[in-house]
Amino acid sequence: MTFIVKKTYFIEEIKTTTHMRKMFLLLIILGGFSFLNAQTQPIRIIMIGAHPDDCDGGGGGTAILLASMGHAVKFVSVTNGDAGHQTEGGGALAKRRMAEAKEAGKRFGVTYDVLDNHDGELTPNLNVRLQVIRKIREWDADVVIAPRPNDYHPDHRYTGVLVQDAAYMVGVPNVAPDTRALKKNPVFLYFQDYFQRPNPFRPDIAVDITETFDRKINALSAHESQYYEWLPWIGGYASEVPTSAADRLTWLATRQTEPLTPEILKALEKWYGKDRAMRVKYAEVFEVCEYGTQPGTEEIRRLFPMLKK
Description:
- Helix content is 51%, strand content 13%.
- The chain is an alpha/beta fold.
- The N and C termini lie far apart (70 Å).
């Protein structure tokens, strides 16, 4: 009898052990799938500018890199650009600029949205703030990039204010309740600018866009009304614009080449190492906003996986 009890106990122990091994193996497999899913889950970036070409210049090269890696990038223009031209305006110009933005989006490999607010008349009111909140939520953004609120152009300034005002509210369910609130607060960044007051731009993140610079220029070129007409006219250099398409691309590339300042070179060295930093010809840089999630070094590398030493 004693032998039978021991034998039965031994058999049950084997069954239990086998079951535990199966469960353990299943957990490992499921954990592996979860790990792979976490590694392959696309990063979701939304860049928000005032006009239908603003995101392109400030973050276009970075957008191409991210999109080519399988991540999701959206450009949003808060205004429809219906005032940005010397001879055209109103609905006809807005329609033209919408078409230019859509073509640029195809060349960048991003989604491009243009909101129907008048160019030159933007104010940081509740209605537009809710529009911005909804766009960030709909995209389920991990990263939001916008202008700093000390720009020369009121539309740029107020776009920065609107995004700052949205930074906390994107997680508040009772604000814009028709769009599901985010369960996480995104990382908010600023595009580069050159304004010194009240404080100069700080290049916290530097992205080498040397390999995507030509594609960026080709995409910018889709905004013909801006880069070849309006901006040269208002800037007083319209006579410099070439007539042929090839010459225009070369000229635009020269206009879009920004100096790599000592501060930017230092940032490039931080993210890529000294040897790689010395080979960079073109870069886009971003400042971490004090609103939203404050990322550490590893989180920035996760959100910008091209930053490799």
